[in-house]
């Protein structure tokens, strides 16, 4: 198969491109390089440009008429930044995605896997969420994801477009071969922040929110190894038509998580166990837009395309630490 991966020079996008290759498929990467590093595109088929550039999308399809599907990952993703810069988030995540989806439909490339987010879910007392649970996105970032889910659902009902919407929980870790990982110098991801504190690149790791309604007062998340997330995309794209057929609808929402919740304090404890010593900790109030959290019920992923996570939090921590040692070599900068 040949698969267009928008945002394929990003953290999850580059790992997914690698997983496609491992499974014998060919990724075609489209990325503006707004945030993702060129090094992550490596020797893949690569187009630098904007997802809303209809002429560019047409050229990609013309040059690769055998494209089987599009995995749409290109997006701005930092919650506090979305609170400060809502226009940029709605423009890039919503308006530009709308142009992409319409152009793909016009060009006869109707299969779309869309990267959505677990940050959409409303708080539940037991924190386990299924795809039909109430939604309450509480940041501009999360609201852009909800809007695009609705756009895809409406377009799928009215056109030939078909959509598998994957709600990610919290990807952590790196590519198993350490060819890609967190690239931001100051990553917003919790594990990236822990690695910085452990390596002495910042004074301490800050736990944001310590009196939340969880078992230890800190946020709860479903931390899933990024390689498991990448593998899920491969499985979903390989079975795309069957997934839609089994769902009995032109679009379907599917959780991607481990099925288990871990609090921030529990993640810190697991990190320190793998790292071998304590990490300096400070505490602070929740950031604007932060959610208390949730973890995934993954029954639908198992039912529709036979996928479940295989790697542990400890596996992800080990790979993140190993990537931190190799990051400069791969990227060519600190």
Give a summary of the structure in a few sentences.
The chain is α/β, with parallel strands linked by helices and 334 residues long. Helices cover 41% and strands 19% of the residues. The protein has a domain at 2-175 and 222-259 and 296-310: NAD(P)-binding Rossmann-like Domain (Rossmann fold, 3-Layer(aba) Sandwich).
Q: Describe the biggest sheet?
A: 7 strands, parallel
- Biggest sheet strand order reads 3-2-1-4-5-7-12
Number of strands: 15
The SSE string, one letter per element, is EHEEHEHHEEHEEHEEEHHEEHEEHH
CATH topology of the domain at 2-175 and 222-259 and 296-310: Rossmann fold
CATH superfamily of the domain at 2-175 and 222-259 and 296-310: NAD(P)-binding Rossmann-like Domain
| Percent of residues in helices | 40-55%
CATH C-level class of the domain at 2-175 and 222-259 and 296-310 is Alpha Beta
Average pLDDT level: 96
What is the subunit organization of this protein?
Answer: single chain
CA radius of gyration = 19 Å
- Shape estimate: globular
Textual characterization of the structure:
With about 325 residues, this protein is an alpha/beta fold. The protein has a domain at about 1-175 and about 220-260 and about 295-310: 3-Layer(aba) Sandwich (Rossmann fold). About 40% of the residues lie in helices and about 20% in strands. Helix 1 links the parallel strand 1 and strand 2 (about 25-30). Helix 1 (about 10-20) packs across helix 7, helix 4 (about 85-105) runs parallel beside helix 5 (about 140-160) and helix 9 packs across helix 11 (about 315-330). The two termini are about 35 Å apart.
